[in-house]
Amino acid sequence: MDPGPFGCSAPKPQPSCARSTPTTPHTSAADPCCSNPVPKEGLVRKASALIITAGLVMTALTACASPGSAQASCDAGAASGPASKLVTVTGNLGSAPAVSFPTPLKSSTTQRSEIIAGSGQRVLPGQMVSVELNLYNGTTGAALQLGAFDGSTALPLALGDTTIAGLVDGLVCTRVGERVAVVMAPEDGLGVNDQLQIGATDSLVLVVDIVKAFLPRADGEEQAVANGLPAVVLDADGTPGIVLPSGDMPTGLEVGLLKKGAGEKVPADSTVVIHYTGLLWAGDTVFESTWATRSPRVAALGDLPEGLATALTGQTVGSQLVVVVPPDLGFGPETQDKVPGGSTLVYAVDILGID
């Protein structure tokens, strides 16, 4: 992960991209002189000041929205407003849009307007989506990031607490296949960012295609699990709790299939989208949980502890596993962050998709 909120260098000044007056409408399609692509992972990092001021960190797991209720009555997310209606977008899904808006374009609230209706499933709070997007400074009209919109520059975004608030509000309750224009209020955005030339009062303008939505939670058929493995109990929204058995701690890798999904099998060299809770067997304490931030993780199997990667390989999307990982297949003898050296780990994992 890069250290900055977007992880890119500041846009290089280009004479042909200059705006003559503040009120000149800004137009952009796949304009190479204004393009400044950034790594995919940069968008899911908040500026440190926003972590404090936006108050996005959850204080209780029960604050997560229930997938059932959100799907039925999706009333979250930003509404259309006068600022987002000023963004003109032409072009078809699957191709780079032409975007025009008057500058300076400012809004004290984050707003969203539908450009092209989607016919797919609604996107839920806390869900992982794949999107194509263009990003502009609403004050100057400068392009901060331009996507190809052909799938080659699609990036995964978790609509939870690890993504800036304006982007979450702008995309929650859209549909797969939808294109939207979002005007993000300064307080919901990246804050002051000298590298990207974003000022304190600058709104951000985005044009976003919702390409794909991954499962919000494991949806497979429940399976009988062998005795002796930790039990997993689920909250109403799918948040797992792990209950250790009273017997001896296992010394080898143990895998229990709790739910068997109907999706594709996970190849050994794949990148997966997972929701998980990790527990230290000794002390019965949680050391990490994606559910706590409502943000599934996108991870290459090679970046996961060996035992967890082995357990996931060959399983199907939609499945839920409980995995006991011995130290030699986990983090080994060295202490890493909240995991003491030599720890046996227990994971409850939902396989949500393959990226």
Give the helices and strands, then pairings.
Layout: E1 26-28, H1 48-53, H2 67-73, E2 88-90, E3 98-101, E4 111-116, E5 128-137, E6 143-145, E7 155-158, H3 165-171, E8 179-184, E9 204-213, E10 221-222, E11 231-234, E12 240-243, E13 254-260, E14 271-280, E15 285-289, E16 297-300, H4 306-312, E17 320-325, E18 345-354
Antiparallel strand pairs: 1-3, 2-3, 4-8, 5-6, 5-7, 5-9, 8-9, 10-13, 11-12, 13-17, 14-15, 14-16, 14-18, 17-18
Q: Can you tell me the number of structural domains?
A: 2
Query: Measured on Cα atoms, how large is the radius of gyration?
Result: 22 Å
> How is the CATH topology of the largest domain named?
Chitinase A, domain 3
Give the DSSP E fraction (strand runs of 2 or more residues): 25-35%
Helix content: under 10%
Characterize the main sheet: 7 strands, antiparallel
Shape: elongated
The CATH class of the largest domain: Alpha Beta
How many E-type strands? Answer: 18
Distance between the termini: 17 Å
Per CATH, the architecture of the largest domain is: Roll
pLDDT averaged over residues: 83
Q: Extract low-pLDDT stretches.
A: 1-73
Order of helices and strands: EHHEEEEEEHEEEEEEEEEHEE
Specify the structural class. Answer: mainly beta
